[in-house]
Amino acid sequence: MHNPSVPVLSARADLHNSILSYGEAEEASIRDRSAYLVDLVLHRLKGDWAAGDRLTEVCNYALGAPGKYFRPILLLESAAAVGGDLHQVMPAAAGTEGAHLASLMHDDIIDGDELRRGMPAVHAKYSQADAIVGGDALIFYLFAALATCAANGVEAQRIVLAMGKAAKAGAELCQGQMMEEEIRQNYDSRVTSYLRMIENKTAALFRAACSIGGTLGGGSAEEADALARYGTGLGIAFQIQDDLLPYLSTAEETGKPHSSDLANRRLTLPFLLCRAAAGPELAAELDDLINSEGDLEDRHLRLAALLTRHGAVTRAAEEARRYAADAIDALVPLPQSPSRQSLEYFAKAAVSRCR
Amino acid sequence: MHNPSVPVLSARADLHNSILSYGEAEEASIRDRSAYLVDLVLHRLKGDWAAGDRLTEVCNYALGAPGKYFRPILLLESAAAVGGDLHQVMPAAAGTEGAHLASLMHDDIIDGDELRRGMPAVHAKYSQADAIVGGDALIFYLFAALATCAANGVEAQRIVLAMGKAAKAGAELCQGQMMEEEIRQNYDSRVTSYLRMIENKTAALFRAACSIGGTLGGGSAEEADALARYGTGLGIAFQIQDDLLPYLSTAEETGKPHSSDLANRRLTLPFLLCRAAAGPELAAELDDLINSEGDLEDRHLRLAALLTRHGAVTRAAEEARRYAADAIDALVPLPQSPSRQSLEYFAKAAVSRCR
Q1: Mutation choice for A interface testing from B136, B181, B201 by most A CBs within 10 A
Q2: Residue B355 belongs to some domain of the structure
Q3: ipTM, 2 decimals?
Q4: What is the pLDDT of residues A58-104, one digit of tens each?
């Protein structure tokens, strides 16, 4: 399936080169810094979920799965990018990971996905009831964590602003999940519906993490807005890349079966781009692959070959890169700093990852 | 089933007399005031959920079912009891109803209850996915609503305190739902486990509504604490009474089948009290009713007769009244006002209602 002659792989090589243009030492330093921040976040999460009851066990299991901790890192780097103190905003960073995991736990129930990050999903490991209630607890955790920032010396007015942003992102996230369901059911969904959906489902929490980081970190409204724009572009780019993974990576790398999108009728950008540009013959072939009852893995391989051959995988990858570039542009109003450099790096790395 | 000679009915008559001791005009005035507050809350909820998308439709359906709107009223009366302005705290009041409905929506999925307030539960009317995501949205709504209070002139510091209380109540609520599951599975559950469970599952949000009302309404920390104690006692009393309803009312009055608790193995106070005091013969009979596969409605009727005959329904009703009395005592530090009088009335009414 991974034919080295297909254009997308060259696109990936370009991006890889673009990241390498940082210089290996620079990239290593950004990676070290991120690893250090992840350790801090994990430490906070472990402390906050230390009790021995069942609710804690369920949430601990979800929080402990090897993740990217992307949202907390974004919040921390955004706070640092406006001169904020990492310790002060750490609870909020951990909280955003909680809200993110809540949406994954609930999503996995809805989609019937049994695997997450290569491990049994929470509802598969425990029960559906545990995954529903555990997810709810992790949503409340975000706001408990925001309240804790007051004890760390963050101004109450900034915390109230952050709460408003977090609550808005949560509503958008739910909106995005509903739209995903509608797209699944409405076969004529367009590329624009998909983009609006992922802006809600994924970019909203990225946007909120960055903007909350800027606000709690003491930034101006303009800085918080710039960070919000950065988070939006990054989130959309990240989600498009995520949806590209079944066509770019092995199932071992992504930690869940490639045919999961097909099994769930999740129509993503490569498919929608290909379908929108298809003549009657190709359209019929695509429709058949989505609607037939044949072997999932086989259908996935045929779909991947089709989307790759017709350039849809490449075009989707180009879209992702465009949003990543928008994200980097949005950072211009911020002063140069290692944190801003990390944020720029994340935007490039988001669209070149294969897991 | 409702034999006028069983003691519980005399107990209900006593409470009814106790409420009537208010004087009919006084009681009517409290009811009018509550009806007026419910109108204000409904107006706010309708305005906040006015968009035409699917998420709004689902949440609107949940919010529109004929409810008691008890938590918003408690928040408003608590705010007024410390001299607060109803308009300023109205968003928070509406928000507590959202969080309450979220827990009902998620609970109904977990319990497989198809009816709620006499109407199809959200997951039955729409889908499980809609009920999960809609519930999540209503949790976020609580915090969006709290943030809105800033625009109404509530001090940021008070809002941050309120957010912490709301988030803590949410965590306790989830804890309570987990405990309920454990009690369901662990046959030897005791009365103390049950009381701890309902303190989390029900009283936590009552406590938070009262305490948040006191805080946002401008009350002192002592006043907010008194209101929190009131809410705790009221919540426990309310939940015990709720669990008594299948033994006191008709299914039409409660809006769901009486055998629902039995179908879900929900062991409530009358059962646990009876089982704890039972000799071997009665214990075996009770166990058989819970564990047998026989006709649900028939088992419920036999269980109700048994619990009534052995005085367990009466003893549970007495427990409820004890907590209601505690709630009223907790209000002593507050100045006399129509709002305090309403709160006192609610505590008495909570344990005399039959729906």
Answers
A1: B136
A2: no
A3: 0.89
A4: 999 998 877 889 999 999 999 999 999 999 999 999 999 999 999 99
